[in-house]
Structures are given as C-alpha cells and as structure tokens.
Design brief:
Layout: H1 14-19, H2 21-30, H3 32-42, E1 77-81, E2 87-89, H4 91-96, E3 100-107, E4 113-123, H5 124-131, E5 139-144, E6 150-154, H6 155-158, E7 163-169, E8 172-173, E9 183-186, E10 198-204
Parallel strand pairs: 1-10
Antiparallel strand pairs: 1-2, 3-4, 4-7, 5-6, 5-10, 7-8, 7-9
Organism: Actinomadura chokoriensis
Pfam families: Oxidored_molyb
Domain Oxidoreductase molybdopterin-binding: 68-212
C-alpha cells in the first residue's frame, strides 16, 4: 500500500502489510462501513504509535525494510517506453511544466481516510504531452526507487486531470516518508495506486499488474465503485 503517517513514523514491515491483504480486499468489495471495522482491527501498535483513522492521520506503510533517500538536487523521474521523446525530469523541469493543485481525500483500502489533503504537482496528461505518447501505447507503468513497488494505469486513466506527479503536499515539498521527492497521486482510486518514491514512468502496450495486484488487489481501484463513471461517488 505504501501509504504513510502524517507525522514521522517507523515503517510497518512487509509481513504486517501482507497480513492486511485479505481484509483489505474485502474492504474494497463490501464498502466503507466494513473498511472502518477492518481498519480498527488492524490499527498498528508499537513503534508506529496508535494513530487511528478517526484522528485524521496518515499511516506509514512500506513493502521494503528501508528506502534510500533521494535529494531534491539529484532526483530524476525517467519517462520511457512508447514515447517520442524519452526524458529524465529533474524537479526544476517539473516546475517548468503547468502546475495543478487538488484538494482531495486520501483513502486507504483498509479503511482509514485523510480528508482535504492539498496536493501540487504536474497533472500526468501534461507530463505525457511533454514526451509525446506513441499511438501504440495503451497503459502506463510506474516504478518506485524502493526497487520493489510498481503500479499501472490504463492510458485513459492516466490522462485524467486528477492524476498527479506530486511534488508538494499540504504546502510543503513531499517528504521522504510521504514518498518524495516525487510521488504519484491518483485521486479517484485507493491509496495503493498512489505509488511512493516515484522514479520511473513507462508507456507500455498493455496494463502490467502492479505489486499489490499480483497479490490479489483490484487493478481498477476506484473508491466506492467498481467502474470509472465520472458521475459515481468518490
């Protein structure tokens, strides 16, 4: 899930997150009330503290034991695959592209939610336009510089204006614990789609299931619905 606690925290290890898998999938299927009960059942204790969903705080999850820190000065987001102009974007390059702001909730599949998070970054369709998408492209694959986590969207999903390469969060640069210097934010989907520590974006010919999809999570993770209708609740 690669989500995080709003205050600094200790990562919940891979085994703990894997233990959430079955109940998390059940939460997607049966709705918010069951997800709330699931989240209370799974509320972490010990090093991470007991930040419950009702407190409005992020939880910090990682599928690896540690993630190497990238500095803002040296970080790159490499865009490759079925594009006309592959490029490795520095933060300064991203800042020169059109900037998009969103005030949207962050909803975890296990039930907790953080309302009205202020996001700033480059809308993914603007980034894709900058590199030129090949007619053969049908999907987008995202890789984390943690070396393990991956995610994917269809090209249609990736061209939504509420999908960001986020560089700021709640008025500050995205911190390392929150997935910085750059992270993905997919507003209409559950948090496991919002890949942290974004290092690579690859245009592909088909959707390649990500880390959690290969363990049973839905590829299309729309919050509160099983399809992508814009008139459905989010």
């Amino acid at each position: 899930m690669n989500e995080e606690e709003r205050t600094e925290g200790t990562p919940v290890g891979r085994r703990v997150v894997l233990g959430m898998l079955g109940l998390g999938v059940a939460g997607v299927a049966v709705g918010a009330s069951v997800q709330d009960r699931v989240s209370r059942t799974l509320a972490p204790v010990g090093p991470i503290g007991d930040v419950l969903p009702a407190a409005g705080g992020f939880r910090y999850y990682s599928v690896t034991d540690s993630v190497k820190r990238h500095s803002a000065a040296t970080h790159r987001v490499a865009v490759s695959g079925l594009v006309g102009r592959p490029q490795a974007f520095r933060l300064a390059d991203l800042a020169r592209l059109p900037q998009t702001t969103l005030d949207r909730d962050f909803q975890c599949v296990t039930g907790w939610r953080v309302p009205d998070v202020h996001w700033v970054g480059v809308a993914l369709p603007d980034l894709l336009a900058a590199v030129g998408v090949s007619p053969q492209a049908r999907a987008v694959r995202f890789t984390s510089f943690d070396g393990v986590y991956t995610e994917s969207l269809t090209l249609e999903q990736a061209r939504r204006r509420d999908v960001l390469v986020a560089t700021q969060m709640d008025g500050k640069p995205v911190s390392h614990d929150h997935g910085g210097p750059t992270r993905l934010y997919v507003a209409p989907m559950y948090g496991y789609k919002s890949l942290k520590w974004l290092g690579g974006i690859e245009l592909t010919g088909k959707v390649e299931p990500g880390y959690w999809e290969n363990l049973g999570y839905d590829v299309d993770a729309w919050v509160g619905r099983s399809n992508g209708r814009d008139d459905a609740p989010t």
